[in-house]
Amino acid sequence: MHKPFIPALLLTAALLTSCGGNAPAPTAARNSNAAAANNAQTSIQHGTSPSSNLGAAAAHGGGAAPPAADAAAERALVDTKELDARIKSAGEKARASNASAADKKAAADAYLARGNVYWSGGQPRLYKYALADFKQVLKYDPSNAEARQKIDTIVGIYQGMGRPVPEVPDEQ
Fold this sequence. Notes:
Helices cover 62% and strands 0% of the residues. By secondary structure, it is mainly alpha-helical. It has one domain (1-19, 60-172).
């Protein structure tokens, strides 16, 4: 078995578990009246009103970025205080007009370390923050194969589930 497949499989299983295990209906079905009726039935089965599902994509890691308070609470699921400080310091140096290659590498390494904490945090809702950090890695180190592979894995999982790939603003 190919090693990158195992984390992708585990990530898919975790996302499916956190989202109720149901893949979304195809776009055409979601837009039909039958889908609306089905959505209402599903909402009833889950004990919610149909209108309460409007934020479901954001709650499952897709769509718009979560409100700041929610993002802070989600990020607090893992301890990144030391890495946050490291990113702030390294990021300031890397963004300076006289930044050296070593400064940019230090920033990339700091983002990679925090992205890996989110990646392995055991909480599917943290994957969007891992994705944001891995994207930052590529800004400072475009040839970083680990960050590129993990971005591809996370994006592939969201796309495979028919969910939007989340856009999370960088938080240093």
